[in-house]
Amino acid sequence: MVLFSGHRSHRICFCCWLMILLTLNGYAGLVSAATSVDPPGKVEPKTLSLLIGSNGTITCRLSEPKSSEIWFYKENSERGIYQPSDEIQIIDQYTAALIIQNATEQKSWYQCMVDKQGIGLSQLHVGKSPQNVTDFSCIVYDYEYMQCSFTRPDNMLMTEYELEYRFANDNSKHKCKLSEDPEQFQKLHCNITNYLPIRDKYLFTLIGNNAGGRKTQKFVINNHKIVIPSPLELRVQNIT
């Protein structure tokens, strides 16, 4: 009986240690969750880019278990989004997400809040995939050099452009570095560095990239039809 009791005692002790271990592991998990972010918390992503009509989320994670107190503030419209709301989803006791559905065109800042304390900001860009450039043109100045330019279409999504060109009957491609017009932000310029006046046609490829997609356009420029001659110098002499 004593041996049996001792065996039973060991079993009880083992079960107790197992329960303690599980409890400690659970507690460690809670501590880990709480300390996974620096106080007071963080917002992700810092920038969210969406196409018009699409969906997205902005997540706010706290260092304390107060997700039920999270609300969001849309700064440019001074609009508060409070719980309970279909626009806020509780993920766990530390985390809540702002749900963006059927997004409309905008460039906005969203602030995650707990009471009157700001936790972090996320910038939302909602726009279109790259749009057609409609005013691409080039000018040749007295057969000495060529300059091309175009206007970036309005878009809430930041769009990067690349321009390259080649000559007719020549597959060698040349990059053309784009620069912004200091007086017109939407205007981009490119100077053809290896301009060849004897070439008839320049074949340009313009590529636009943003978070919504990619667009490629082709332009053919006839070198001899865009020449601006240098101004004539006239000298008047008094002949008597």
From TrEMBL:
SUPFAM superfamilies named among the record's database cross-references: Fibronectin type III (SSF49265), Immunoglobulin (SSF48726)
Keywords: Receptor, Signal
Domain of life: Eukaryota
Signal peptide boundaries: 1-33
Domain Ig-like: 39-122
Descriptive protein name: Interleukin-6 receptor alpha chain, binding protein
Record organism: Musca domestica
